[in-house]
Each structure stands twice: as structure tokens, then as C-alpha cells.
Amino acid sequence: MNKLSPFHLAIPVSNLEKNRAFYKDILEFEEGRSSDHWVDFNFFGHQLVIHLDDNIKNENTNSVDGKNVPIPHFGVVLEWKVFQEFAEKLKKRKIEFVIEPYVRFRGLTGEQSTMFFKDPSGNALEFKSFKDPSQIFAN
Fold first, then answer.
1. Per-residue pLDDT tens over the stretch 52-75
2. pTM of the predicted protein model
């Protein structure tokens, strides 16, 4: 398989400045280009763009491992140590988690650390890390 190129993801936000502060100051993502209606961020080497949109509805969930996982959601698979450091930083910043950082599928194929939280517009983010990265797509 070829080296992974950065992905591009554009998401709606209801308040550009409030979300800009969240992604830039709370999550510490480097800001790139912007306009009056959108802002680019470096999302762990990928391009995340927040776009102003007043019609956002993110209220669905799906049960996974006994937890109500928000859908839709997006995020990045991080290295184990990077995940732990990022989770600790978010806890210190008093992020309101939808699902607190924990280990899912402990001792099973696909064991992973995961956490969910929402941005100020209700977009759900999941960050995860696999104990064994070779099991990301394992059955």
C-alpha cells in the first residue's frame, strides 16, 4: 500500500469564532488559511476545515461496547503514547466528554483506547489508538 496522503474533511459549525477558538486554543490545532465563512486547521497532519452553517443537527447515537456512540463522528487514529498525552491534556482543559477516555475491547482483537467529545457546534469527534496497530482492520 502507498504512503497515506493527508485527508481533507470539511464540517459545518454554527459559530465560526467560537469553534475557531475551540480548535485553535483548546485542541491546539495550527490554523491555516481562512475567510469570513471558513477556517483551515492542521488536524494531526490532515486538513480540517470548519464552515459556517446555521442548520446543524447532530443527535443520533449507536450502541458500541455498551456506550452510546454519537453519529456521525470523525477523528484520527493516534499512536498509543500520543493518544494518552492528548487525553490527559483534554482532561486538564476540562473537556466535556461524551465518552471519557477508556480501553474498549480489552484483551480482544482490536483492543483500543478511545474517547468522544463534541465541538461547540455539536460535531462529534473520536480519537482512538490501537494497542496493536496491525489490528486496525482486523476481524
1. 998 777 678 899 888 999 989 999
2. 0.89
